[in-house]
Structures are given as structure tokens and as C-alpha cells.
Amino acid sequence: MSTTTSDLGLELAPRRQGFFRFLLSQLKPRGRLLTPFNMISIPVMLLAAGILVIRFADGLGAVTNLSDAFPWGIWKAFNVIAGVAFAGGAYVLCFMVYVLGLKKYEPAVRVTVLSGFLAYCFYAGALILELGKPWEIMNPLIGDGFGLSSVLFLVAWHFVLYITAAFVEFSPAIAEWAGAPRLRRVLKGMTLGAVVLGIALSMLHQSGLGALFLMAGPKIHPLWFSEFIPILFFVSSIFAGLSMVIVEGSISRKVFNGAMDEEHRKSHRAILLGLSRICAGTMIAYLMMQVIAFVHGHDGASLTGAMGAWWLVEILGFTALPCVLFIVALRRQHLGLVRIAGVMTVVGVLLNRLNVSLIAYRWDHPNHYVPTWMEVVVAVAIIFAQIWVLRWAITRMPVLRRSPAWAETDDARRGLKH
Amino acid sequence: MNRRGFFKLCGVAAGSTALATRANAGVARASTVSSKDDPYGILIDTTKCVGCNSCSEACAEAHGLPEPNTDEDVLKDTTVTQWTVINKFAVEDEDIYVKRQCMHCIEPACVSACLTEAMHKNEDGAVVWDADRCMGCRYCMVSCPFDIPKYEYGSNNPKVQKCIRCFELTEVGKVPACVDACPEEAITFGRRSELLAEGHKRIAESPDDYVNHIYGEREAGGTAMLYLASVPFEQLGFRTDLGTRSYPEYTKEFLYAVPFLLAGVPAALLGMSRATSGKHDDSIDLDQEG
Question: What is the ipTM of this complex?
Fold first, then answer.
């Protein structure tokens, strides 16, 4: 097979066709079409598309159970507020690898940043569907009206800036896929800048999503509301994100085995155990903060009744228990237990976000919000669509495998560590 | 650290400070709302109200809204097509009627929540909404302690609807429609300071007829709509757990922290990255660049 030599003197993979022919060939589906995932996700996404036509023709009321008492539904609570917490793995891993230089976790960075980037793109999409007048979405960004005293203004800006930063962090993989060494050099040079800004932006919008509720205090059940809510959201985003890395990594290992190289397979175990340790540590910190917030504002009496029991399910059952499981798993070096703890932690953070923004929000309201089946279909379809794009990128770009030889040669020549 | 690294660091710090100052300006502006010292307001004396609903009918007429719901037997909330309602409360064998509408807070939660400045406060203190700017996020509804903004969920071009305190009328020297329509003089329009003085005067003159509390004087940082009553306000469907802090205050600390973090964190992280990379030996850099 002939190889071409780039103007930087690097051996590139054979690519005789032009870029557009290359792109077209890459867009063609690969692998079997009738997999169980496809057979479920395609009808769901088609159904969601139909529902969205009704939503834009007849308004939000036609497909959702939103009301004046419950202005935010599951598209915001599940896709945006919970989804963003689970995308937190990207900034935590970037911190560990690019700032602290922990090379051990390097094989997990690209796939996590890609998942995070896509999560933000699709959750921004969910937000747009949920806006009453999405065509005005550019107002706070281009300056028709800068609501500078709004927490949501900050969250919106940080969202947009972070999507950009995450894209820059991932972009060298795109350049490697497209065989563009010059572009790759430029993008690679921007990585550290994007990483440090991305971490600051993540800290702020993760906590900002909690700060959104600071003005809704009297509407939220006191067990889920305290002035510490921004800090609680930030700290929980660390173990939420890393648990998602554990769960996704374990699934990827089975599903994307073909797109994974030996280095990624071998590193899997060490990475999972390392992440468990960080999860356990941050969960202990989080639980201590929850205890402090609890003793600040409550006594034992507030734990009686259905809401008290529900709070204990979240805190003991799906935060403290998986924390203990992580520690036991570490002692026994048991990957199966790590995965169970990871799944439980994901459930726990999901419960927390849904509780704050929906379930404990107006918990005493006689007509409490319950989503329509159409809202559920759209919420799930957004996740499916995200997985489709993720799968497309993983099977084509160097995400779970080493960068092409020319890229590594270039890095070695320039003495870059990443 | 070499010279290039230093400039890089400065660049990041400068960039994030620019972002940070923008956030800071927001905090500063949020606090200037309170300097609109004496807005127009309305004093509602529930001891004088007879529940005739002239006000809600006048409101509907003034704003082209459909016939208001005047059913006394249900507890009504304002809706997208009815910006003020009269609710009946039976307290100690007495029927007390309470008008409900936007409270036009001194420092409104909805205004500070709005990221497009669609919800804003007029010069004379009316909290109003601008259709061209609103993107429909409904954060104003989540934030409002009185649950006032209502949304047109049934529309594909929805609006936020609520009492606008007839600002078009008051701008030309008239009084709001509800005030004009009231046959019992239960609703009084005026500057908030005058209304407070009037309220305290009525309480002082007839201490047996009123509880010694003007609702809205301090609630949620103070509102331009003020209420007098003969029984404690919690018996009349008022929220008495809102505190006296203005609602934007609750997010102020968070907003203040933003510029600090944006300015400091990236620079600190760059430093950490360099310290752990092992690539840069500072002593050599010193020799080279002196």
C-alpha cells in the first residue's frame, strides 16, 4: 500500500480521494444495521421527530404536562440538569491528565471529552426544544438583552464557551481522522488553554445549575434545599461524571471492542480502580456536606414521612451505599463491584437532580407534574441520538485507539507529552 | 517559567478577567434596582373590599381580556387571561375578600432571573415584560416567590402574562384600571412611601380593625403592592415564610464568586500543569533568559 508524505515530512495514511469523497465514504453506515440498539432507537427517534412537529405547531402544552406551577419538565430536569452532571467526567479527567500529568488516565480522556462534548450539544438541543421561543435564543449571546444579574445568563454563556473548549480539546482527534497534520499541530497547541478554561467554566456552570434554584427556596422541600446547593452540585458532578466514565467505559469495552487497541484494553482495569478511589473520596466529602447542611436546618423530625424516607433512599441507598461499595471494591480489586457501585452512583445523582428540580419541587402541590409519554419519548430519543453520533465518531476516529503513527511521530519530534 | 509561558499565562488571566468583569457588572446593576427609591404602588385594604369584582372586570376590559372568573367558591389563581382575581376567605364568621395580582417587588426575582432583560422594571416601578426579547425559558416563573408570571403553553409563539400595573395609564397621569373601578376605595394608587404612611396611619387610628402589619412592606425585600388586613395574613392565603431579604440577594454571593473563579482558576491550573510536567526546569530557564 502506498503512503503519502505530508509537507511536514510525516507519513500519512493512503488517501487518494478528495476530502468530500472521504467524508461521504465516512458517513456511510458500517457494521450490521439490524442490531437490537438500532431496532429500538430508530423507531423512538422517528416518533420523537413526529412529537416535535406537534410541539412546534401547537405549542408546548400540546405534548407536555408543563403548567404554571411546574414550568420546567423532564427535558430540563433529566436531559439538561442531570445530563450535565454526568458530562462532568470530561473536566475531571482533563484536570487529572493535562493539569496533574497523571498519564495513567490518558487512554480514557478522548472518549470522555467526546462524550462530554456531545452531551452538551444534545442537551443544548433539549433546552432549545423546551424554550417557548427558541428562535430568540441568541438574544443573551449577541447582546439584544444582557441579563447580567441572572444565574441562567451565566450558565448559558458558560455552556456555550464550554462546548467550544470541549471541541478544541477533542479536535486533534478530528485532525488525525482527516489526515491534517498542520491543523493538528495548531489544535494541539490550544489544548492546555482550552483545558484550564474548560475546568473553570465547568466548576461554574455545574454549581450554577444548583444556583438556579437559590431563588426557588420556599418551593423546594427543605431536605433538598440549602444555601450550599451550588457547592453540592459541583462536588457531586465530580463523582457523577467519573461514575459515568466507569459505566460507559465498561459498556464501550464490550460494544466497541473492535475500535479499541491493546493499550486501551489493558489500561481499563487500572483506570477503573483509580477512578473508584476518587469517587469514594469525593462521595465522602459530599456526604459530609449533606450532613452539615442537614444539621444546619433540620432535626430528626424532618426525616419522618414519605419525603424523609425518599431523602434517605437517595442519601443512604444511592450515595452512602455505593460509596462503601467503591471502597470494598478497591480492597478486593474487584471490577464487577466497581461497576455495580458506578451504576448505583449514577442512579443516585440522577435521583438528586430530579428531586431538586422536579420531585421535591412543589412536593406538596395537589396536581404534581408527571411527564406525558411524549415527553419521555423525546427525552430518551435525545440520549439515543447522542449515542448514534458517539458511535459514529468512535468507529471512525482515533478515540479508543492510539493516534496514527504520523501524529505520534510529530509529537515525539516536538517533545510534547500529549 | 520562560517568557513565552509568562505571556501565555497573562493572556489567560486577561481573557478570563474580561469575562469576569462582565459578570461583575451584572452584580453591580442588580443592586442599583433598589436605588429606584420610591416607585408607584397600590395599597389594598382588605377590610374595605366587598368582593364586587369591579376591579377584575375593569382589568379585563382595559387589557382586552375575556370575562374574568368571579366564582367565590373556589380559590382562584391568576391566569394568562385574568391578571387579577378576588378570593373569598371565611375567617371567624366573616367573609374577607383578597385581591391577588403581581406584587411589583422593589427588587423582583423575575427581573434578576431573566437572562434577556425581557422581564424588566419601568422607571416608575412597574414590572413588565417585553415579547421581543423573551426566549421562553420560564426561569422567571421558577423564581417568583408569589407565582405570578403565567405562560401561554397552548401557543406556538407564547407570551408571559401578568399584571403590568397599567403602566400605560400611569405614564400619562391616570390611575390603574382596578383602582379607578373600585367603588369602596379599597384600592389606593400612589407613591409607595405615601401608601406606607397612609397604611400606618389607618392602623394607628383604628388598631382594633387592623393587624399591625402591612404585607409587602418588608416581604421578599419589599413590594410596591401593599396590603392591610384585620386578621393575620397567613389566614388570607398569603405566604408568610418568604423572609425580608430581596430575592436577587440569594444569588448575589454566587454571582460575586464567578469573576474570582474565572480570573483565578485558569491561571492557577496553568501553574499546576507546569509544576507537574517536569519538562520545565526553572533554573535552566533562569540561566537562559536571565
Answer: 0.88
The answer to whether B186 contacts chain A (CB < 8 Å) is: no
Taking the Cβ of residue B278 and every Cβ of chain A, the question of whether any pair is shorter than 8 Å is answered with yes
CATH number of the structural domain spanning residue A182: 1.20.1630.10
Contacts of B126 (CB under 8 A, 6+ apart): B39, B40, B104, B164, B165, B167, B170
| B199 falls within a domain | yes
What is the residue range of B149's domain? Answer: 31-249
Does residue A145 belong to the interface with chain B, where contact is any CB pair within 8 Å? yes
pLDDT tens digits, one per residue of A264-274: 778 888 899 99
* pLDDT tens string A50-84: 999 999 999 999 999 999 999 999 999 999 999 99
Contacts of B279 in chain A (CB under 8 A): 415, 417
User: Is B286 among the domain residues?
Assistant: no
What is the domain range of residue A351? 34-395
CB proximity B100 to A under 8 Å: no
Which residue of B150, B151, B247 is in closest CB contact with A132? B151
Contacts of B274 in chain A (CB under 8 A): none
Residue A10 lies in a domain: no
Q: Does B16 touch chain A (CB under 8 A)?
A: yes
Quote the number of domains for chain A.
1
Q: Does A153 touch chain B (CB under 8 A)?
A: yes
Of chain A residues 199-228, which have a CB less than 8 A from chain B?
Answer: 199-201, 203-204, 207-208, 211-219, 227
Residue A359 has pLDDT above 90, yes or no: yes
Best residue in A98, A133, A195, A205 for a mutation probing chain B (most B CBs within 10 Å): A133
- The answer to whether residue A413 is domain-embedded is no
Distance CA(A340)–CA(A47), nearest Å, equals 32
Helices (H), A179-261: 181-189, 191-211, 229-255
